[in-house]
Amino acid sequence: xxxxxxxxxxxxxxxxxxxxxxxxxxxxxxxxxxxxxxxxxxxxxxxxxxxxxxxxxxxxxxxxxxxxxxxxxxxxxxxxxxxxxxxxxxxxxxxxxxxxxxxxxxxxxxxxxxxxxxxxxxxxxxxxxxxxxxxxxxxxxxxxxxxxxxxxxxxxxxxxxxxxxxxxxxxxxxxxxxxxxxxxxxxxxxxxxxxxxxxxxxxxxxxxxxxxxxxxxxxxxxxxxxxxxxxxxxxxxxxxxxxxxxxxxxxxxxxxxxxx
Length: 260
Hints:
Blueprint: H1 4-24, H2 30-37, H3 41-53, E1 57-58, E2 67-68, H4 70-79, H5 85-100, E3 103-110, E4 113-120, E5 135-136, H6 142-149, H7 153-162, H8 176-189, E6 192-195, E7 202-210, E8 216-225, H9 226-229, H10 234-251, H11 254-259
Antiparallel strand pairs: 1-2, 3-4, 3-8, 4-5, 6-7, 7-8
C-alpha cells in the first residue's frame, strides 16, 4: 500500500514532469502532455487544472493549449543573481520615477503577452498601477509595440496571423496593415507610444533595452494619466525614457543579458 507521503512525492514528481515538458513545448495540448509524461488524460487534466489555479500553467480558455504560467516567471525572477536585468535596471528606473513621479515599468513578451518583470510606482493618489507578472495585450501597449517592432518581418506577420487586434478603446489600432506601418515607424524612431490605445485616459512612452549583440531583450515604459502628461514636454519625456533604456543597456554584462 502506498503511504500518504509516497503519494505526495509521486504527485510532485508528476507535476514537475508536466512543468518540464510544457516549458520545452509551449502551446501543448492535453493529449500531447498526457502522452509525453505517460499519464492518463484524466490524471493529467486534474494536475494541469491545479497548476493552472496556482499560476504555474497558463491556458487562455478551456480547450486551449497550455503554456508556462506567470508564477514560474515570478519564481525565476526571485532566483536571479545580482547581475540580473531587473537588478541592473532598477537604479535607472528609480531615477526616472523620481524625476516625474510617474510609474516606470520593465517589460518583456512572455507566452504571447506583454509581461511586467519590475515596476517603480508613482506616489500620486491617481496613478497607473502595475505589478510583477501583470499581463497586457501586446498590440495596445507602448512596450508591447516596442518589443514587437524589434522582431523580424516574418515574426510580425506570424503574430498578426495568430492575433486578433481587439479594440480596447476607440483609439486602438485594429487594422493589420496600419499596425505594421506603426511598427515600422517605431523601429525607425527607436521609441513607441500608447496614446490611449489600452486605456483611453493613459499616455505611455517606451524604449528598448538592447544587449551587446544588438538584440532587444526588454523595454522600459513610463505611464502618465492623460491630464498630467500635458504638464510636460512630451518630446523631453520620450528623450528621458530613451536615455533610461540606453543607460540600462550599457550596464548589462553579456552573460546576464543572454540568460535573463
